[in-house]
Amino acid sequence: MGEMVILVDKNDNQLGLMEKIEAHEKAVLHRAFSVFILNDDHELLIQKRALNKYHSPGLWTNTCCSHPRDGETIKKAGIRRLSEEMGFETDLKVLLSFIYKAEFDNGLFEHEYDYVLVGYYNQNPIINENEVCDWKWINLDFLKEDIKINSSNYTVWFKIIFNKFYNNFNK
Prior knowledge:
Nucleoside Triphosphate Pyrophosphohydrolase
């Protein structure tokens, strides 16, 4: 059986479990998280998704994101995935949560109750090349403008989530 996601209602009450790919095919609402790591210069660590990813390969996105496992807290899931993808751990805090729905070019959907987690780190990551093919630290204001100008370089969800992050984050 493949990786399972936690199905939720609009209030984030757990309804059950479903295989991740099936949830993305059927656009079923499920719990997720998006990690935003900043350094002391208030630059955001972004990653370029590996070219072998089943959706959005080679696109820039937030530091990491994924789905918590059944019984796993959002913060623990974020820390786990950060370590798996970017090779480091740091404390995370929940900044906000919201629901969004987006369609990919390949017919799959994201329909997520997403928690935006924020943490700080001042070193370079040690990336997992099965997940990430590049990374960089980037100024938030520059990134906001670049997303407008070069929208096709970024994942669908990152464009949605970044605006919420940018508008809610106290710089």
